[in-house]
Design brief:
homodimer, 450 residues, alpha/beta, Urease, subunit C, domain 1, TIM Barrel, 2 domains, seven-stranded mixed β-sheet, 16 strands
Chain lengths: 450, 450
């Protein structure tokens, strides 16, 4: 692939704004910047005036007036639920029975899985997301279809066969067995892990749906493949938590179940983690495990509020997930709208001891959460998350005036005018999201949308 | 104006779904329907096969395949905050000082007010809203600009001069006086009330910002003009509530302040009403007063959750407000997304005694809230809110496949296929809103958008 120089206003995170004395220190802002891309990677980035002369052979793609940020990283969703997104009226456990399992059962068919996977990746790109960790279903076809499409599209993609075998928690036709889960996972893992940008994520759905025997198999897979990821759900809904404690009476709490089977370690990414005790947060931090924060889902299903100030306090890395279909959007920006609201609701309505400043999700913090923070959550910050030389050329071109209201709100300012303007406009795009704010998406240096 | 027949799938509410044994009974669904419009009013509506032959001279506008619903009614917002919509990081009282008053001060200028009013009504129409009750500022120019633009556009519009005179609650330059508020309101009321579709709404901003003397003047206006509306804010934020009780130590609660000055009656529309006691709900119901539920604002500012199940229990009518700029959207559909989440959060996370079924905001209930329910909240159901003969021809043409995800989610079904499909698709448009779902908006029979 020939060398390309993508010009525009660059904004990325170089560190965690929650850790900075002034959160702006976490940002790198280059009003007239350029990303030099070759072979799918970022060769160099910086001010146009300095960089362009060094690469005279590069073909310039001019996005002046637009804001360029790293591709969004989605750490938790269910691609197989794309068609049932935004289904009415149920909280978690009823949701699964009413909408999820009937739809996911269709993924016995490779054709159906192929169709949904193709639609799904197109939607991701339309929304500026270039890395995604997704659940599949209990059917190997669902994983194969997902990874095949990811390879075709060049996306960085994590996925794994769903494990759910406990009687009564899913339709019989949907449930698998401990051995089936182990064998199926193993086969898919050997076939796809580290192939192109595919990474395998061992995926027992949640302790609610897996028996002792299945979680043992998950633990065995985790032990045999320490470089693989583990994705599951944790403490999402009060009724779910109560059931898990009944199913595993020897465990002190929900996290204790996953600990018992050796799953809680680096690259363990637990969706939701809403009802964690201080002790559970502490143990997550000590184990270097991560949380997938899914605000749209947590509000849509009414699940509750992730306490990221406490996660930060205990050194628990966390990233952002749209959690479609429980989340009612596939857009990272739109998800940040709900993330902001989850923070503000805790500032005002929660009686617990909290860090109010931490809970105000500014543009810097939001950008971090959707990019470098999520990359770190996935232990992938060496490859993605910002514009460091050598990282994958995954980025999004944002039109900060993508709607007439956004344009009016900008009040004549351009994103290149100042860091404050860029941040104000980024915040606007997340709180007043419209599809048109995504002007183009580049994945591995290739223009995949726009 | 000549006679027009607008054809498509008609869906409107004929009663309150919360009061029906089966909520579908509240809906009128005509798969292939037509609205016959003349002189800005609905002459007749029904099945195309029956109606079209009766009006052979009518010019047919064909929106087959689209869903036609009544124009949305927004009962609470601040048009003067259009430019500062989605501003970062403050709860109510700080929000006002940091963003609101500096912006609203600009409305001393008639030119500035004209510019914003023109933008505002365009945005309303883009979003399918045809009736709006808005606050203005303390400057008469803000009200004049609003009503003048409403008249030009033909929108049904309620507005009034803002009253805020308490020292320390707003910048001195922004505050008015009791007499200034009375005189200014009186003059504007006489000039605009009942002119075209303009209606005057007496608007003391809130008991937090008005002195005893100013609220007395508001009461006098209310008494002298029983056919006028009264809009204000009530029990939005814990800090606000606490201050109000300090300012009015002789009142038993927040509502008691407005009662003291004779404001709580029919056509009294109180924004938010989040922290009402059971007794306050009861008194609101007894007085036939209304609540403006503003979910996007209540989540964006972190204010809390309106308990509509209790409002219903006590017979308190309530409608939907986007409450821009505290709400981060101008779209009624997008506002319903947050309304749904406010309901679900209460189902799962609230310990109070509640009616879970009532709190699940189905498509029928959501449509009612944004149309007939809001019309009733404003005591305007004789004029707007559904397709009854003789009502204003305010309606919206909805493209239920307005995005690729919505189209995928429809799974081949058309809104005309069944009431269930129409409802599923309406729910989809509110939870996965994109601007493109609004295909066209008609206000007083005139196509004002699309």
């Amino acid at each position: 692939m020939s060398k390309v120089a993508v010009r525009g206003t660059l904004l990325d995170c170089i560190s965690n704004p929650w850790d900075c004395a002034q959160e702006k220190q976490a940002l790198r802002f280059i009003p007239d910047g350029v990303l030099v891309v070759e072979d799918g990677k970022i060769v160099e980035s910086g001010a146009s005036s300095e960089i362009l002369v060094k690469h005279p052979e590069a073909q310039v793609e001019d996005f002046s007036g637009y804001l360029i940020v790293p591709g969004f990283v989605d750490v938790h969703l269910h691609y197989a639920q794309t068609r049932i997104i935004g289904s009415f009226g149920r909280q978690l456990l009823e949701w699964l029975q009413t909408y999820t399992f009937p739809e996911e059962l269709k993924f016995t068919s490779k054709d159906y899985a192929d169709e949904v996977a193709a639609v799904f990746f197109q939607e991701m790109f339309k929304n500026g997301t270039t890395t995604v960790q997704s659940f599949a279903t209990t059917h190997p076809n669902s994983v194969v279809a997902f990874f095949e499409e990811a390879r075709r599209q060049g996306a960085l993609a994590l996925c794994g066969l769903t494990g759910i075998d406990r009687e009564g928690t899913a339709p019989d036709a949907y449930r698998d067995t401990p051995q089936g889960f182990y064998d199926g996972s193993k086969e898919l893992l050997e076939r796809f892990h580290q192939v192109d940008r595919c990474l395998y994520s061992i995926a027992p759905r949640f302790a609610f749906g897996s028996t002792h025997e299945q979680l043992k198999m998950a633990g065995r897979l985790a032990e045999e493949h320490p470089d693989c990821w583990i994705q599951t759900h944790l403490s999402e809904n009060p009724a779910e938590v109560a059931s898990v404690l009944e199913f595993f009476p020897d465990c002190q709490d929900y996290l204790g179940v996953y600990e018992k089977y050796g799953l809680v370690r680096k690259r363990f990414v637990a969706g939701h983690s809403i009802y964690l005790s201080e002790d559970e947060f502490r143990r997550m931090g000590d184990a270097d495990a991560s949380v997938a924060f899914c605000p749209a889902s947590n509000l849509f299903l009414g699940s509750g509020f992730f306490q990221w100030d406490r996660a930060n306090h205990f050194g628990v890395r966390w990233g952002l997930g749209c959690d479609s279909g429980g989340g009612n959007t596939l857009s990272a920006l739109r998800t940040l709208d709900d993330a902001y609201k989850v923070g503000m609701l805790q500032v005002v309505t929660s009686d617990r001891e909290k860090d109010e400043e931490s809970l105000r999700l500014s543009a810097s913090k939001a950008l971090y959460a959707a990019t470098l923070g999520s990359a770190r959550c996935l232990d992938l910050e060496q490859e993605i998350g910002n514009f460091e030389k050598g990282k994958w050329a995954d980025f999004v071109i944002l039109d900060t005036g993508g709607s007439s209201v956004l344009e009016f709100r900008k009040n004549g300012a351009r994103p290149s005018d100042s860091l404050e303007d860029a941040c104000h406009q980024f915040f606007g795009m997340m709180m007043l999201w419209v599809p048109e704010v995504i002007r183009a998406t580049f994945c591995k240096g290739r223009r995949v949308f726009g």
